[in-house]
């Protein structure tokens, strides 16, 4: 894998070290996460974040284990790092860090105090909410190590205040149980019990969210480090608190071995591919319903659109088609009224997506093509056919001959326009494409009408399912004719006089109800049109001159912008509070996942792509270590924004990089 390592110039500079985040997932949606410097810059940072019934329902438990060395002279050296509401940073243990490394995906810190070098490593047990933290004396000594256990038990998105009751702590043999939710175990436990007031999170302040909280100092572990090689370790786990994990050494070594197996199974062609293969593993989780995908860390759960866009990169490019097969079967079983739920992160399933279900058709077709899985094709074909025929029910020419299909037809205005066979969608207050940001309940980029990528996906889905039927020797019914009609209309309607494709045709006026007489075609230059050239059954052949024009306006080192500079509403930097950030989410902000469609379109046009991925490769050690950010600013230096670890960003880069 790519060597990701930093010396004292980064580790010892607070801003540099605090900008770089590491992530260790547990395979369930929980994680440990923090920064190179050790400073918690987000409310989400901590050593034990526990997934609930779904990956999105997480709770933070163990916040930090602050090391403190007592030297033979009696001097005390504090190695933790905290920022406070006052602006003070105390202690400043980062100043003693001489290096940080990711080793097989696991973080390792080394502090130097004269000739004494202390090392910390940590891991989570895969498939269990269980943390192991090991400290080893590398050189020098003797010394005594204390570890202050700072805890909470609260929703991952929130805060806890000293105005309320402190966490319930019950001492046990060798440690404590916190809130009957998680357990700590280690040497020489001493209960303490004290609020730490006003711990500050600078990233939350930058995002316009509550920047501080109060934490509970529960107690401390301690152990002797008499000679090099001596260790002091702590375990923390949730779930069955009576089921004590293996020793920390075993948990850490098992995690290393598993990570090496994950990389080997992907058969990476180079160290970048190896790094991306391990990064992809973080997003594949096991739930009660089977495999699923976390869209991004630290705050996302499962989103069907993200899952299906990322499917090929996460599962087929990494050598795990069997898990992918189980996921696709589970999602097919969850179809309701011919649609996939967009997400359940909000507490209940939401079906407000036009394209998520169409991406599902694409994912199944890619699985069958790459894995040669005709058995899955036969199993899922009835469901796929029902989805398409359900959408076609709004076209009276097809509805009369369509087999029964549970689909509400007009939900969110989604259906086929009988005049041209194209897919139309939209209703007041909803943004149904991937550009789905809303401010105060109102869509920013509503894109009602016939969006370009939705219709490219519609044509792609009709063609893919028709081909699956033919592969299985079955009659494709009305699907080929519907494909041909929609493709002809697409080729007639979407090319614009501006020299690129319309982003939306037949867009209604801003105010509802929609009126046909006032409809217009939106020619804002956006990257959505890339899908018209990049999909396997794309409706158009790419024109090199058009792609070069798009690249000139949209392409950055981290992928395409979501809107061309100079366009109405263009936003340079994705910054500020929630409303400001959401207003600019798709108004110029760079989305690395779009590098996939762009690369596919270039290759179909015969354009070179060898140097296309250099910026994203260089990004791997910059922010979310070994991973790719959700978004980035539209202007230099293209700072990463949004979630620092994002599934479709990793998956699409992994999928389209040359092997």
Could you describe the 3D structure shown?
Strands 1-9-10-11-12-19-16-15-14 form a nine-stranded antiparallel β-sheet. Strands 2, 3, 4, 5, 6, 13, 17 and 18 form an eight-stranded antiparallel β-sheet that branches. The chain has a three-stranded antiparallel β-sheet with strand order 27-28-29. The protein has about 650 residues and is an alpha+beta fold. It is about 30% helix and about 25% strand. It has 18 helices and 34 strands. This is Amylo-alpha-1,6-glucosidase. InterPro entries: 6-hairpin_glycosidase_sf (IPR008928), 6hp_glycosidase-like_sf (IPR012341), AGL/Gdb1 (IPR010401), GDE_C (IPR032790), Glycogen_debranch_N (IPR024742).
Radius of gyration of CA atoms, rounded to a whole number: 26 Å
Show unreliable segments.
Answer: 399-410, 511-516
Strand order of the largest sheet: 1-9-10-11-12-19-16-15-14
Question: Helix count, per DSSP?
Answer: 18
Name the structural class: alpha+beta
What percentage of the residues does DSSP assign to strands (E)?
A: 25-35%
* Euclidean distance between termini CA atoms: 15 Å
Topology, number of strands: 34
Q: What helical percentage do the residues reach?
A: 25-40%
Judging from the principal axes of the Cα atoms, what is the shape? elongated
Largest sheet: 9 strands, antiparallel
The overall pLDDT, averaged over residues, is: 94
Protein name: Amylo-alpha-1,6-glucosidase
Pfam families: GDE_C, GDE_N
